[in-house]
Amino acid sequence: MTTTLVGAEPEPIAIDPARTAVVMIDMQRDFLEPGGFGETLGNDVSLLNAAVAPCRALLQSARRQGLLVVHTREGHRADLSDAPPAKVERGAPSLRIGAPGPMGRILIRGEAGHDIIPALYPAAGEPIIDKPGKGAFYATELHAILQHRAIATLIVCGVTTEVCVHTTVREANDRGYRCIVPSDCCASYFPEFHEVGLRMIKAQGGIFGWVSDSARVLAALG
What is the pTM of this model? Predict the structure, then answer.
């Protein structure tokens, strides 16, 4: 086992790259581009763009080093049979899940808006996890994929920090994975939620995981 040290809070963490995976959460057009689900909720989607370049750099490094890279997409079946009414009917968005939008039906699998943005598009062979909920482990095969590769550490990136990233980190923590969250590889429609979400992860000695940044992760990966 060859380990490398990643600078992080609350303390540096030693990782074995062969047992480390990058999990890229929901970098979808529906969340990052105008006309998608994020904008229908009244959000300024441009706030998420800051995470794209750091994520791209991290992806390129992970691919060069041969790390497992997994992508997730939140979305639902065309008949909405896996979309609870409590989720579909909440709030007052301009367009609800399943409604026709500029990029196809909102948050529906197979529609243009559901897919990952071109700048971070999966490379051939990289698993894509289609998830119906916030967390990447709920009702998906993610745990099985990670176990098959004997993965112990996850580098979790994506959007939004306090919702799908945070939920996934909590799920991973309960399953015994060590999670590193590069702060600049995540983003939120609410900058204050981003900051507090990261503080929650690393609080109390790293109760959910470690918080780092792309520069320190890239330095560790070489």
Answer: 0.97
Model confidence at 1, pLDDT cuts 50, 70, 90, reads: confident
Among residues 59, 78, 77, the alpha carbon closest in space to that of 68 is found at 59
Q: Is the distance from CB of 76 to CB of 82 less than 8 angstroms?
A: yes
Q: Is 26 in the active site?
A: yes
Q: pLDDT tens digits for 77-123? A: 999 999 999 999 999 889 999 999 999 999 999 999 999 999 999 99
Place of tokens 């993965």: 151
b/e code 174-202 from CB counts within 10 Å (16+ = b): eeebbbbbbbbbbbbbbeeebeebbebbb
For the segment 146-170, what is each residue's pLDDT rounded down to a tens digit? 999 999 999 999 999 999 999 999 9
CA-CA-CA-CA dihedral for 180, 53, 136, 148, to nearest 10: -70
Give yes or no: 131 in active site. Answer: yes
Could you confirm whether 174 is annotated as catalytic?
no
Cα 208 to Cα 116: distance, rounded to the nearest angstrom: 27
Query: Of 55, 131, 184, 202, which one is the catalytic site residue?
Result: 131
CA–CA dist 30, 75 (Å, integer): 10
Residues 6+ apart with CB under 8 A from 204: none
